[in-house]
Amino acid sequence: MRQLTSLDAQFLHTESATTSAHVAGVAVLDPAGSPTGTVTRQALVALLRDRLHLIPALSLRLADVPFGLDRPYWTEDESFDVAGHVHETTLPMPGDESQLADAVARLHERRLDRGRPLWEMHLIHGLTGGRIALYAKVHHCAVDGISGAETLAALLDLTPEIRAVDPPAERAPTSAPGTITMLAGALARSATHPVRVLRSLGRAAADLDVIPVAATLPGAKLVAAATRRLFGRAGNLPEPPSLSAPRTPFNGPITAERRFSYGSVPLADVKRVARAFEISVNDVVMALCASALRSWLREHDALPDRPLIAAVPVAVRTASARETVGNQLSAMLAPMPTDLDCPRERLLAVGAAMRAAKRRFARSPTNWPDELSSMVPATVTALATPVVFRLASMAAPPVNLIVSNVPGPQFPLYLCGARMTAYYPMSVLTDVSGGVNITCFSYDGSLDFGLVTCPERVEDAWRLMGHIQEAMDELVQLADAQGSPGETRLAPASRPAGQPVPA
Predict the structure, then answer these.
(1) Alpha-carbon gap, residue 94 to 91, rounded angstroms
(2) 304 vs 245: CA distance, rounded Å
(3) Any catalytic annotation for residue 140?
(4) Dihedral of the CA atoms 46, 31, 452, 143 (nearest 10)?
């Protein structure tokens, strides 16, 4: 019996007429070396059937508690058929990058059917060069960024030859409790809810100054500091920066429409910059995004005079929870120094801000998103979340955007015999987190970016992607000027062949 956690349920309640809460990705495949020279829907369905036991989330559907009195449960779908979740389409000529992005954006707009297991895959043929794309999405209540990548990894092989997998082990099927048991559990949790709220408030109070929205409340810093002293957590914590997000075109109510753009930069260049300035790869990613956002805002005469605030998801999934359905994640808030004109100063400021955020995160409970989600009863959360998110977006945004970096393997992988040449991740837009989401995935020597935007907020998503690639070139030049003994110049960042050059 598996019940959704408060955080998992929050991702369900986030959905509205304008918000689809699934994580997704686009794998670009080169079938030239595969045994059949292509990837067919039939081959993908057969592969999924063979490996379904390696991906438990794909065969489960939601079982709702009557009247929405409690969080839903996971249960096996007795009528489940893999083939019903796998679709196939072909792009019209010429099958370029822009057409693929438009097709994927339309697929990403559509919410998943909650009456079935919450996932879909779409094989997209007709790309230039004989390539094939696979767009796959899974609801965020079932997977986070890391487990979503692991879901795809279960289907991939190290060589074009499709590997044999061990048959499924004997296990009891996952089933939801009966109606009476559900209602009894809901009543028991309702009775003890005030006690749990007080406990959660006590645990969250020490980090009130770094929690979205709460950090901007009057007295938040004083309450957090006093609580840390009380519980002996006051030593050596860096002072948090201002986490008041400025108003930007990214923020405000979103629509149901989406735009998608994507591209890659060489991971070797990212690592070169990290080494030259003694910062992490993730710090370089944040610097690239800060520079790109600054350029876009300047072009639109909308650059604030203070840093943007980004929410950065952090995986906290343990080895023992690898096969657990649901989310094991937390988040850091970090300023993005888009107000700094000098690229070197901007890079160093990003490094300092991220080091401070990581130090605070290491000393703080990682489960505050779940704690916050659990403070409001399930019945209220389901009805109130979309309304609260919409009102918050019209008032003061808690963050300007979400930036996420998911590490991946540095060797080629194959799907149904076709080599995966790139993987562009995609995530969620909400009223409260803004109309831009930037996610990247490191794979086989590249850092692959997927940008999802709401056209009401950012119409020219390709232009924003172009700014990221321009920022990479700029940082490589800075690394060259900085100089690192014994290192040689690496190739500059480049756009994938056929990708539209931003206007």
Answers:
(1) 8
(2) 10
(3) yes
(4) 30
Q: Residue 447 has what pLDDT? A: 98
Query: Tokens representing 267?
Result: 């991971």
Fold of 196-403+432-482: Chloramphenicol Acetyltransferase (3.30.559)
Among the listed residues 108, 122, 140, 467, the single catalytic one is 140
Report the predicted TM-score, pTM, of the whole model to 2 decimal places.
Answer: 0.88
Any idea what DSSP says for residue 66? Answer: G
SS (H, E, C) 130-143: HCEEEEEEEECCCC
pLDDT, tens digit (0-9, with 9 covering 90-100), for 185-237: 888 888 887 776 666 666 666 666 666 555 555 666 676 667 666 656 555 66
Element (DSSP H or E) covering residue 437: strand 436-443
Which residue, among 466, 398, 452, 461, has the nearest Cα to 251 in the 3D structure? Answer: 398
Are 489 and 473 in contact by the 8 Å Cβ rule? The answer is: no
- What is the pLDDT at residue 439? 97
User: Where in the chain are the domains?
Assistant: 196-403+432-482
Residues 201 and 390: their CA atoms lie apart, in Å, by 24
Give the residues across from 425 on adjacent strands.
25
For 279-337, what is each residue's pLDDT tens digit?
999 999 999 999 999 999 999 999 999 999 999 988 776 655 555 677 777 788 899 99
CA distance 63 to 4: 10
- Report which of residues 296 and 490 the model is more confident about: 296
Query: Three-state SS string across 214-263, please?
Result: HHHCCCHHHHHHHHHHHCCCCCCCCCCCCCCCCCCCCCCCCCCCCEEEEE
Cα 296 off chain centre by: 22
HEC per residue, 3-23: ECCHHHHHHHHHCECCECCEE
457 touches 436 (CB < 8 A):
yes
Q: Is residue 66 classed exposed, middle or buried when 0-12, 13-18 and 19+ CB atoms within 10 A define those classes? A: exposed
Residues paired with 157 in a beta bridge:
414
Question: In angstroms, what CA-CA distances link 333 with 37, 211, 367, 402?
Answer: 46, 8, 14, 9
Helix/strand/coil for 39: coil
Nearest to 45 by CA among 104, 120, 99: 120
State the maximum Cα–Cα separation within the chain, in Å, rounded to a whole number.
70
Residue 39 CA to residue 343 CA, distance in Å, equals 44
State yes or no: pLDDT of 257 exceeds 80. Answer: yes
Distance from C-alpha of 159 to C-alpha of 419, rounded to nearest angstrom? 8
Length of the chain, in residues: 503
Euclidean distance between the first and the last CA atom of the chain, given in angstroms as a whole number: 53
Q: Which residues contact 3 (CB under 8 A, 6 or more apart)?
A: 70, 71, 72, 73, 74
Q: Are 334 and 340 in contact (CB under 8 A)?
A: no
